[in-house]
């Protein structure tokens, strides 16, 4: 009687034990309910039976446990990454809302972005109009950036580094 292993060694046993390669993608079915982010890989011993020459086949429980642990750890890592990205997105949206409020309060315009301020400044300057509101908005945004960085001037930040 032979045993199928991942190293292709043969030994005498009463059943063929199938060892699962570590590079499978998904989660092995071990009788537990798979998480919503897990992709099950089902191994049916009946499908392997023709290769066994009539010998009983069992899937190595240690391989199943090891693989399930690795798959669950990967799901945990992916969940943490998704939470990190969601937090970054929420922070970016809050910063954008703050900048929009500063621009609206300073200029009186609600349809201009931070990046459009420079163009509005140049356009006003070329047209000979007052550039003060655009400069005030840019200064207010700069002050908000410094407050987020915890400094009162960019020189102060450079000194800390």
Labels describing this entry:
about 160 residues; mainly alpha; two-stranded parallel sheet; 5 helices; about 5% strand; rod-shaped
What gap, in angstroms, lies between the N and C termini?
Answer: 69 Å
- Total number of helices: 5
User: Which percent band covers the strand fraction?
Assistant: 5-15%
Radius of gyration: 31 Å
Strand order of the largest sheet: 1-4
- Note the overall shape: rod-shaped
Helicity range? 55-70%
Low-pLDDT segments: 1-13, 23-34
User: How would you classify the helix and strand content by structural class?
Assistant: mainly alpha
Structure description:
The protein has 161 residues and is mostly helical. The protein has helices at residues 45-48, 61-107, 114-126, 132-149, 154-160; strands at residues 16-18, 27-28, 40-41, 57-59. Strands 1-4 form a two-stranded parallel sheet. Strands 2-3 form a two-stranded parallel sheet.
Secondary-structure blueprint:
Layout: E1 16-18, E2 27-28, E3 40-41, H1 45-48, E4 57-59, H2 61-107, H3 114-126, H4 132-149, H5 154-160
Helix pairs in contact: 2-4, 3-4
Brief digest:
This protein has 161 residues and is mainly α. It is built from five helices and four strands, in the order βββαβαααα.
């Amino acid at each position: 009687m032979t045993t199928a292993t991942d190293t292709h060694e043969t030994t005498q046993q009463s059943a063929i034990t199938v060892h699962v390669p570590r590079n499978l993608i998904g989660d092995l079915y071990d009788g537990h309910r798979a998480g919503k982010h897990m992709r099950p890989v089902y191994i049916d011993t009946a499908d392997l039976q023709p290769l066994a020459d009539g010998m009983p086949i069992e899937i190595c429980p240690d391989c199943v446990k090891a693989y399930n642990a690795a798959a669950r750890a990967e799901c945990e890592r992916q969940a943490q990454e998704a939470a990190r990205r969601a937090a970054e997105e929420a922070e970016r949206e809050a910063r954008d809302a703050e900048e929009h409020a500063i621009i609206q309060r300073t200029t009186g315009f609600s349809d201009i972005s931070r990046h459009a301020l420079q163009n509005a400044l140049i356009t006003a300057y070329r047209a000979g109009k007052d550039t003060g509101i655009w400069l005030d908005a840019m200064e207010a945004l700069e002050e908000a950036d410094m407050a987020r960085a915890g400094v009162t001037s960019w020189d102060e930040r450079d000194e800390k580094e």
